[in-house]
Amino acid sequence: MAADQPRPGDLLINDPILTTISRAAFALVMLFALLLLWRGHNAPGGGFIAGLMTVCALILHRIANGDSALRLDPVKFIPWGLALSFTTGLVPYLLGRPFLKSDYGYLTTALTGEFEWATALLFDLGVFLVVVGAGLALAYALIEVEPNELVEGDS
């Protein structure tokens, strides 16, 4: 494509309706993803679905604000998530307990009162990081392919 022609993904960048709606939708989806991540070890939800919701919110943000809106390398999240999840399972094993044995307790703060914490949240956070990293890497790879561009393997 010529340098002066817009790319297909750039056509919606200056749309004020999409930009405004995407801000509110981004905030709501991210709050819901945080809730799913926080409650996932005791209720439906968890790192996987919270990661998928986050990927959807970040893709919407990138579509509404252009390619330069979110400059991060999502692949870097994957090893951190794997390390966190593996460490969450390894620590109980090294202490003579079953692998991935979850511990829990209660913490009291002035702001929230008493709430339960669990090490399963750390495992869910690791899964969350892996899903966000892999999902964004896949989405970015699909977004960056031009419609008329031949990909390796195409004839």
From TrEMBL:
GO cellular component: plasma membrane
Membrane topology, from the record: Multi-pass membrane protein
Signal peptide: none
Subcellular location(s) per record: Cell membrane
InterPro entries, per database record: CPA3_antiporter_subunitB (IPR050622), MnhB (IPR007182)
Ranges that cross the membrane: 20-38, 45-65, 77-96, 117-143
Alphabetical UniProt keywords: Cell membrane, Membrane, Transmembrane, Transmembrane helix
Residues annotated as domain Na+/H+ antiporter MnhB subunit-related protein: 17-135
Domain of life: Bacteria
Pfam families cross-referenced by the UniProt entry: MnhB
Source species: Deinococcus marmoris
PANTHER family noted in UniProt: NA(+)/H(+) ANTIPORTER SUBUNIT B, NA(+)_H(+) ANTIPORTER SUBUNIT B
Family: Belongs to the CPA3 antiporters (TC 2.A.63) subunit B family.
Name of this protein: Na(+) H(+) antiporter subunit B
